[in-house]
């Protein structure tokens, strides 16, 4: 069984800490990114999410958002699934969408990565 709560590190050396997942699947935590839009130093930002309760022997899916607090006018939504590999290591796979604020409707096309 994969446990979503705990400390996670990604390929860019960013850290994510998820507090205990509540019985209803809700969780919160913080994300310390090493990659910033402004190229600045790493900063911790709040995250909130929910985990879908896995079925018998299943791997849980989840989604969360990060509000890039105090250093960027952007928000990122992540969706993924938690697995355990053959060596017993827990692994999160995710896809993300980052939305930056833009100054006009005409610039909307370039606001989402």
TrEMBL record:
The gene is AVD_2. Keywords: Biotin, Disulfide bond, Glycoprotein, Secreted, Signal. InterPro entries: Avidin, Avidin-like_sf, Avidin/str, Avidin/Streptavidin-rel. This is Avidin. The lineage of its organism: Eukaryota, Metazoa, Chordata, Craniata, Vertebrata. It holds the Pfam family Avidin. Its main location: secreted. Disulfide bonds join 2-82. Homotetramer. One of its GO terms (cellular component) is extracellular region. It comes from Eudyptes sclateri (Erect-crested penguin). Forms a strong non-covalent specific complex with biotin. Belongs to the avidin/streptavidin family. It is found in: Secreted. PROSITE patterns: AVIDIN_2. One of its GO terms (molecular function) is biotin binding. Gene3D superfamilies: Avidin-like. The keyword Metal-binding does not apply.
């Amino acid at each position: 069984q994969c446990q979503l709560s705990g400390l996670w590190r990604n390929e860019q050396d960013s850290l994510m800490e998820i507090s205990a997942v509540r019985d209803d699947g809700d969780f919160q935590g913080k994300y310390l990114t090493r990659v910033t839009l402004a190229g600045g130093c790493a900063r911790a930002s709040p995250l909130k999410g929910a985990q879908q309760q896995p079925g018998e022997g299943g791997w849980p899916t989840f989604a969360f958002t990060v509000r890039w607090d105090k250093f960027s006018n952007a928000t990122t939504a992540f969706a993924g699934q938690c697995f355990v590999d053959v060596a017993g290591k827990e692994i999160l796979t995710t896809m993300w969408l980052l939305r930056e604020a833009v100054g006009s409707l005409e610039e909307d096309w370039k606001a989402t990565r």
